[in-house]
Amino acid sequence: ETGVTQTPRHLVMGMTNKKSLKCEQHLGHNAMYWYKQSAKKPLELMFVYSLEERVENNSVPSRFSPECPNSSHLFLHLHTLQPEDSALYLCASSLGGGAGVYNEQFFGPGTRLTVL
Amino acid sequence: AQSVAQPEDQVNVAEGNPLTVKCTYSVSGNPYLFWYVQYPNRGLQFLLKYITGDNLVKGSYGFEAEFNKSQTSFHLKKPSALVSDSALYFCAVRDAAAGNTPLVFGKGTRLSVIA
Q: Which of B42, B48, B94 to mutate to test the interface with A (most CBs of A within 10 A)?
């Protein structure tokens, strides 16, 4: 679709499980993002990485742990989640993440997560 | 602080009629404004953006948006709606002078085009 892929597309996990979401971008971008999209709620920005450094962490619970090993890959490690964490998790990338940047973000298709 | 509002949760329009999806914003400086569309079970897709220059911006799939600084609005428009335009639409803003801040998204407007 847009050069941003996410795996898996669907994930069902128990509250005691550990799982990871993966995002890969093939666009040569240097900023990557994790968003949470829940029904009836605005899109929530979770984490931002720019040049592989975390530059934004919007008070996300520690049961969510991001990892950005290089500018093309982004992971979200999940541990002891709660049922209210069930949502669509979207990854995005863009060229540049700093001040005055006007480049659009490109989104992956998302991972639909269900926590039982 | 920057914010964006989409006052309508749902917009219904008949196929072939013009459509408008409303967006207003608040920033301290000049805005960078974006529209995205989300089809079912998909991520957001970029439609168009306003950075500077002409107030009327043309984008993908025949959509356009008009930047109105006095009304702090950036409404999305299309002259003739298609059933396939039915989707969730998001407006987003970034303050050009706000430093290293990410995009702020509106809560989305669901567009339903009826045949």
A: B42
Structure tokens at B105: 């998204």
The token duo for B46 is 């970029």
Cβ neighbours of residue A12 under 8 Å, at least 6 residues apart? A113, A114, A116
**Does the pLDDT at position B108 exceed 90?**
yes
Question: Tokens representing B48?
Answer: 């168009």
> Which residues of chain B neighbour A6 with C-beta distances below 8 Å?
43
The rounded percent of chain B whose pLDDT value lies above 70 is: 97
User: Between A82 and A1, where is the model more confident?
Assistant: A82
Per-chain mean pLDDT for chain A: 89
The pairing of strands B44-50 and B87-95 is unpaired
| Cβ–Cβ gap B42/A112 under 8 Å | no
Q: Average pLDDT of B52-78?
A: 96
Q: B34, B106 in Cβ contact below 8 A?
A: no
Query: Distance between CA atoms of B57 and B74, rounded to whole angstroms?
Result: 10
Buried b (16+ CB within 10 A) or exposed e, A13-48: beeeeebebbbbbeeebbbbbbbbbeeeeebebbbb
Put simply, the answer to whether B103 touches A105 (Cβ < 8 Å) is: yes
Lowest mean pLDDT segment, chosen from A86-90, B20-24, B74-78, B102-106: B102-106
Buried b (16+ CB within 10 A) or exposed e, B54-68: eeebebeeebbbbbe
For residue A68, what is the enclosing H or E element?
A: strand A64-70
